[in-house]
Model the fold of this input.
Amino acid sequence: MGTAPKASTTKVDQFFTVAEARFDRWRQLLQVARKWEGASSWQSSEKETQQAATSAAFQELRQWEDFFAYPGEQLLKALGDRISSGDATGTAHLAQSISTALLTHSYRTNLADWEGEEQAAPKFADRLPGAGEGAQHRPYFEVLVASPAQSAKWMDLAQELRKLRRPQDKFIYEPVFVGNFEDAILGAILNGSVEAVVIYEGIPFGSSHYSPVLHEFLTAHLAANNVDKNSEQYALLLAQGLKQLRPELDIYFLSDREPEKLAGDVRGACIRRIFYQVEEPLDLHLSILDGIADRYSTPYFDNLQKYSQRPIGTFHALPVARGKSIFKSNWIRDMGQFYGLNLFLAESSATTGGLDSLLEPTGNIKDAQQKAARAFGADHVFFVTNGTSTSNKMVEQALLAPGDIMLVDRNCHKSHHYGAVIAGAFPLYVEAYPLTQYSMYGAVPLRTIKKALLDLKEEGKLDRARLLVLTNCTFDGHIYNVERVMEECLAIKPDLIFLWDEAWFGFARWSPFYRRRTAMGAAALLEAKFKDPVYRQAYKEQEKRLGANPSNKTILDTGLLADPDKVRLRVYQTNSTHKSMSCLRQGSMVLVKDPDYHTVEEQFHEAVFTHASTSPNLQIIASLDVARRQMELEGYELVNRAIQLALDVRREVNSHPLVSKYFRVLGADEMIPAEFRNSGFVDYLTPGMNWAKAVKAFREDEFALDVTRLTLVCGSAGFDGTQFKNMLAADYDIQLNKTSRNSVLLQTNINNTRSDIAQLIKVLVEISQDIEKKIVVGGSSVREAFDKRVKTLMTDVPNLPNFTSFSDRFRENPSSITSEGDMRSAFFGAYREKQCEHLKLFSEEIDKRLKDGPPLVSANFVIPYPPGFPIMVPGQIIDSETIEFMRKLDVKEIHGYNAALGLKLLNPTFLKSAKPQSDRIPSGEKTAKRKTAAAD
Ligand SMILES: Cc1ncc(COP(=O)(O)O)c(C=O)c1O
Done:
């Protein structure tokens, strides 16, 4: 960690290090400049060496600095002049002031930073008007200007734009000039402060930067986005390319020919405004500010702030609203002091006064949701204030009717299992591949999903398969190839609906690397594909090749294209905004991208009414709004940093001579079997791995690993996951995510800093030293006990039990090759005591029943933490493997299991009794029935 990257090595992490590596390069320059300064009084040869080193460090960083407004051409020139003139002290001072300004971001508000440390140059006085002391904070950003003008003219252009600044502007920006297509792409990649791009028509293609690192970024990006280098319209191509890279950017186009033509061109849809170059630039300036204001505006939060300042008298519920019961209290005043007045002023149980209603939004909540939809690339967004546990149940209730089949990863979050119970849908569990050694599951192979669909087809039940539910990414970081899963499933069932549970993955939208593997990113790619005549042609060729009735084997072995004329691309996503963005706990969103949404809209509202509290927390709604604002304005930079920090942890742990003896962060090769990594990708930090290969793997491989989810193996240090988690919390104030038998899950997010990472590494070093000491002091007996413990944790691991099947009582056709079942009947069957029995886990009766029957059938969900997935669901037949797993479990928290009573089972008498009438709605009638019900 912390060394400046060399231009000759193009490792994967360099893409994400952009911001941090920049600081490192400046720190590196400062270090050598100080050495040079110190050497001034020594021999001249040493001075020369240090001057040369300073000059080299400056050259190294110089090429990158063209893409940032600060420190800018003049300060860089001043620095270069000082180095070449042999002014060591002046160099060190200036390098110091620039790097401090960069690190603290003070240049965004402090005029003096732009002037260098000792210049009082009046020429800069107009640069940041109103940014001095006492002025109201104006967020600062940068505007990338891609202009074919001579670079000598850029200064004039910049000056012209600065002259347009007015005291009433809410934001302040500095332009950054680039002269061609490639540099503009690099600028958008490297500079996270860029919020808007102005493109002049007539820019050339080729970059003026020849660094291998920069070049590799470009090549990989251009290849990933099929950029046609022979195009004549680079300006338009650039607009499109930038939108793919960072969809949140506002793009302005300055045309010198016929702007009206471009305005009517569908390819120009990604451009916010088109101007005729020769016209007044004030409009451009105002448009730039307006674009930022649009993203900055948080309709609900803004209104809530206004509301809180009004002298409102409440004759309503919620005594804490306005805070009088708290601030006047003799006994609970500390609550007010702790939370502050605003929290209570911003509380209300009313939906009047412009506060809008979450259940039936028509005002600012509606506006806030629409902005979120734009930001996430969805058609509609619903804010949810009870977590994704509720969002999932809402979507499932809305889309599924009794008897519908829901294909679902058994290892998914419990809300989906409950969602199936609520909807009365029959879950058809598809199994993820096991990672037995770490007592966890991976993700569900596409082949397994296709096979389940084909089996349903064979059984004549495909029309009932309505929804596929998958977790992306999984708790442990497995990311699906979302595009391929949807494309191939739609090839088998063109109207299958998808629910991607992206509880952990909401942030991924703001990484160009991850976006294509999110529900909305993949849906956008597929939407474009299905409209593309080339795709239609390819589909026709596939039809010819496969014939009218391809065998199941052929279908399973073929990477299928879907029929673009038949598909209905219906995609839903849920995300725990609170898990990965700046949102209060329980803030969650449902994203909808569904051309047939109108057919389910009524039931969607019903589902919202069913699950949403009628007293939603206003602060959660406001924070959902604000989280969206943040991600649209700085998500790109923040997410890159979170990824970078995770790569730092991986590298430091796995290469530290002491820590790596006891701990290891699992790489992609250990989390994803080779058969799902066709590109040959091994891991992000494997020697020889470069950015282009990582991008290729992300495009092609069946599964990828989310870098930010770090499985740290601690069994090799003699700790089980829970023990290690508790120790870190109790002794080192470090909190982490979930645990497994021999690992813990760490996670970086947009909140982490390099100091957090340093603290973690320091703690791991201390723990490793402690282990070493104990072993050395304790001698062979301690060593043996340690080895034995490690073996138990790492080698003697229980097999993970697969889903068995539902009891025949809950299957429509027990001889069906598909295993879906009526879980709701089983679930409610357990509500009558006389229909249940309890058997102690370690009793002989259990073994006898396993051997001779009647079968053991679970009455409820049994979910041990860890691993956190149900090893039994209501109505499931329990086999010996599941019992063995339960018996070996050494965790204390097992939901649905009371050791004193034993396993709760549905008793054989009930299981033999006659089945109740099915309440399933025959397929095809669902929408009609619901519509009638709604009309009633
Ligand atoms: C995959 C998945 N989905 C949904 C949830 C539920 O989210 P929330 O905690 O926001 O209710 C979780 C929680 O851990 C989860 O891991």
The mean pLDDT is 89. The chain has 37 helices and 25 strands. The first helix runs from residue 13 to 16. The pocket of pyridoxal-5'-phosphate is lined by residues 387-389, 413, 415, 471, 475, 501, 503, 576, 588 (CB under 6 Å).
